[in-house]
Amino acid sequence: MPFVYGLGFSSIPGAEQKKFMLYHRFAYSMPLRGKEEPKPFKIRDGAAFSEVSAPLAKLGYGYGEMFWNPPYRKRRSKKFGREQYDFIKPRDVVVLTTRPPLSDQTHGDKKKMLRSCTHLEDQIFKACRKYFRVCARSHVEIRRKICGKSEKGHLEFHMYKGARLKYFRRVDLHQLKRPPKGSHTAICFFLHVKTISEYGCGLVVSFGMGGWETLIWNRIVRTRHPEWLKRPCFVVGEFDMNNLPSRPATLKFVDQIKVDILLEHKIEG
Asked: Residue 127: inside a domain, yes or no?
């Protein structure tokens, strides 16, 4: 059978899948060079996904599918509709541990991710946009009704030599502020919604602005805040990445990192 872009890869036979609550990985391709073709084994943030999926297993979820999202190419790719994902059940949850490229097509950053333009991605983005007004590599802005007067509702990030915070401000003010001199501030996000449109399944999106930030954040979610996976919420966290080990044998060093929760918004319904 020929491989088709956009379809899932299952680890559980069809008959067995009906018995479980399943978590499905929503995975984006690594950056492509030149005429390189995307491959399903070249995907982002696998280690981060393993961190956040561990507490899901403790909650009784089994692993279902990997939804591979290579860049959509208008002349070479087919857009996949709702029918390709009919097996997703309301009790399932889709998990994304990479920054969703909500604004990459219009923001103009050199570092950007390309959309897959599948029906499922459309519904995931629809859910995320209720909380993010902008979500690009260089700039994230949380919707005012969610962040209120938080001093870090509008966030701008360095593009090279890490993804540390560059400027921040309240969304209702114009004056930008800088983090303390010498700091390497990471800002990370966690979103858990009970249902997404047209599928009825849950959604977990947990990411930082770079690979290191995302991996550390999902370790923190697993070890300190697994309760976030039990209830719908939107969370913004902050930590300093100064003095990280260059070649750690494990991630145990993360347990010593001080984390500040800037926003924890309970999602009703």
From this structure: yes
